[in-house]
Amino acid sequence: MSINFGVDYYPEHWPEERWETDARLMQEMGVQVVRMAEFSWHKLEPVEGTYDFEWLDRVIRLLAKHGIKTILGTPSAAPPAWMCNKYPDVMPVDRNGQRRYFGGRHHDCQSNPIYREKVTAIVTRMADHFGNNPDVIGWQPDNELGNSHLDVCFCDSCRKSFQKWLQKKYVNVGALNKAWGTPFWSQEYNSFEEVFAPLKTLTGENPSTMLDWKRFHSDLIVDFLTMQVNILREKCPNQFVTHNYMGFSNCVDYYKLSKPLDFVCQDQYPTGYWIDDGWASPSELAATLDVIRSYKNRSYWMMEQESGICGWEYMGRLPAPGQLPLWALQSIGHGADTVVFFRWRTCTFGTEEYWHGILPHNGVPGRTYNEYKELIHKMNPLMEQMKGAVPKSDVGIIFSFDQNWAFEIQPNARGLNYQNHVRSWYKAFYDRHMNVDFITERADFPQYKLIVAPLQYLMSPVLADSFTRYVEAGGHLVLTMRSGVKETDNRCFTKDALPGLLRKLAGAQILDYDALSQNECEVRFDGADCQTESSDHFEGAAGFDGSSCQKKSEVCLEGAAPAACHGRFWADVLTPDEGTEVLATYASEWYKGAAAVTAHNVGKGVCWYVGTEPDDAFMSALAGLFVDKAEIRSMGCAKKAGSGLHGMPATDVEFVSKEKDGVVWSFVLNHSAEPRTYEYAVDAGELVFGENAGTLAAYEVHIYRK
Ligand SMILES: [Zn+2]
Question: For a surface tag, which of 57, 78, 123, 445 has the fewest beta carbons within 10 Å of its beta carbon?
């Protein structure tokens, strides 16, 4: 049987006498794989140059007796105290020039030559020792690379590495001075050796310097991972190599990090204690899973799927019965081949003693154990067949680390956030029960009926050209505000009015723009304001009649018709060219009456330009218009049960499908604590998971196969 479910296990936290009990309980639950050892450097090398893999051999053997395979972590996310004492330079320096010390995790400098030597030594020893062990099936070098590296490392070694990286990129320092615009505030450099790591300055920084620093830093992390992968590839040809990611975390360009890996993994924590509202919304979770799938453009694993309350100093909310299996099934629906639960048993000490596992502190199986056991036994036969299946999407949304970093350096307006903007577009299609792919600028555009390209702030002639060819050939492209503003070196574009290289494609120019920040502007959409219930695009919002999901303009939106349309954070004041249609105009501010949204037919396709960040209702209305034009249909509709003949529409039910070799698996997931009814607008086939087609209990999931 293939590997479908597993747990993250820390045998070094428990007396060896307990291991047998753990292995037996795991086997009874249906666990087929464990991940171990990613934080156990001291146990593996207790003193410099003396290695002890015996304990790990014993636990791997014991688990194998119970039919459980092992994935090994390399321990480079937690260098031991002996190393940090003897070689303090392996510890990182933050932006204040302050060294960050031993006692947490990730206290390492990834460019430091001694650290790289020590990592190379232990990874080589481990690979030599475990590379031919048939019970070890794969490797996870380090842990959540990029996590904790937001503000490190700015040490002398990293400064020198940055200088080398710049020299390779610019060849001569004159080119660097030009790209960075160094005449401003007398920042010219006479040589690459004069360039600083961007330690904290007294005032604002050079945006071009900062963008190159973020690119360099990302490349350094990729290089650090690749160094380990190369060792493992050479010595362990029959074992896979993967890494555990954190969704939209952006310290490292995950697209680049994915290149040397066989597949990528996600660590998914819907109730993470850092989430202000206590719960990530279903659409945010779905977006996270879709972006993870995009990094390698294939199915993935969950390496850490939440198993209960998450906590360090504070704790997150308690998942209700049924919610944990629901979230695991959501991960599977969006393309997870295997789900590994974090963690097996709640630790009784250390930073993560409140990061709850399947077993509580006392080690006695309870509700979570039983819920996951039931899930595993029901899902195992289906998981076999689903391996490699991924959603097929008509909508592609571009996600770019470069654009994200540029907006982190200069948000442009208070409140404007690249990722939130991207996710607000995602939600509009998610709410319409459509599959969505995140894609890069280098993706095969023509396979999508509709591409949303949010905040295309940095623009290259190559990308502008790809967009134009896509639209000319019949594509539907949505550009949003603040596009074409800069060249890729993060200096302002000067050769045309904005949106610069996209001006001809947009069929409009931006002669004025307004950083609204926390102020909202009013917008008139489609010749009427959004209160008009008769507007086609609000047919659903005004009250879904339940008669059919198949009408093209049907919208399964919850609640009443929206109030007036608003734009947030930013307003590009558009002057349309002749022949460009104005779809929405500003209805407040001195530029009242000017175009806010335009449509420009180019060749066989259309390019829309949306000059502001639409609020939820406006966004939904626009998305409705775009999918109508692109002829994209929603998978189905869901309703709140028991409220009248047809019920009210419900967006807390999620539809997602994935497919492989012509077999389509359709998932419908009730994220609500109340029952819901639903109907498919497409033929979903046979119900293969769950009962009572069309009705979902709280947190219930149905799966269909066709
Ligand atoms: Zn460093």
Answer: 57
Q: How far is the CA of 108 from the centre of ligand 1 (A)?
A: 8
Contact 514, 623 (CB under 8 A): no
Distance CA 628, CA 276 (A): 35
**Amino acid symbol at 382:** L
Distance 199 CA to ligand 1 centre (A): 12
Q: How far is the CA of 111 from the centre of ligand 1 (A)?
A: 6
Strands (E), 170-227: none
Region of residue 135 (phi > 0: left; psi between -120 and 50: alpha; otherwise: beta)? alpha
Q: Are 161 and 118 in contact (CB under 8 A)?
A: no
**Cα 89 to ligand 1 centre (Å):** 8
**How confident is residue 137, by pLDDT bands cut at 50, 70 and 90?**
very high
Residues 537-559 have pLDDT tens digits of: 333 332 333 333 333 334 444 33
Upper half-sphere CA count for residue 612 (Cβ side, 13 Å): 38
Burial of 529-546, coded b for 16+ CB within 10 Å and e otherwise, reads: bbeeeebebbbbbbbbeb
The domain segmentation of the chain, as residue ranges, is 395-529+564-634, 637-705
Q: Do domains 395-529+564-634 and 637-705 have the same CATH topology?
A: no
CA of 141 to the centre of ligand 1 (A): 19
Are 428 and 282 contacting, i.e. CB atoms less than 8 angstroms apart?
no
Calpha distance 415→413 (Å, rounded):
6
CATH top-level class of 637-705: mainly beta
DSSP 8-state symbol, 11: G
**Are 226 and 245 within 8 A, CB to CB?**
no
Amino acid at 57: D
How remote is the CA of residue 242 from the centroid of ligand 1, in Å? 25
The angle formed by the CA atoms of residues 554, 556 and 562, to the nearest 5 degrees, is 95
Two structure tokens written together for 377: 């036994």
Type and span of the H or E element at 13: none
Maximum alpha-carbon separation in the chain? 80
State yes or no: cis peptide before 343, omega within 30 of 0. Answer: yes
Q: What is the pLDDT of residues 52-101, one digit of tens each?
A: 999 999 999 999 999 999 999 999 999 999 999 999 999 999 999 999 99
Ion ligand 1: residues, CB within 5 A, are 109, 153, 155, 157-158
Active site residues: 144, 304
pLDDT in tens, 493-533: 999 999 999 999 999 999 999 999 999 999 999 634 343 33
| Cis bond before residue 153 (omega within 30° of 0) | yes
Number of H helices, E strands in the chain: 17, 27
Instruction: Give the up-direction half-sphere exposure of residue 690: CA atoms within 13 A in the CB hemisphere.
Output: 24
Amino acid making up residue 33:
V
Specify the 3-state DSSP secondary structure of 120: helix
Kindly report whether the global pTM for this prediction surpasses the value 0.85: yes
Strand bridging mode 476-480 / 605-610: parallel
d(CA 699, CA 690): 12
Query: Which residues are within 8 A (CB) of 466 and not within 5 positions of it... i.e. 6 or more apart?
Result: 441, 445
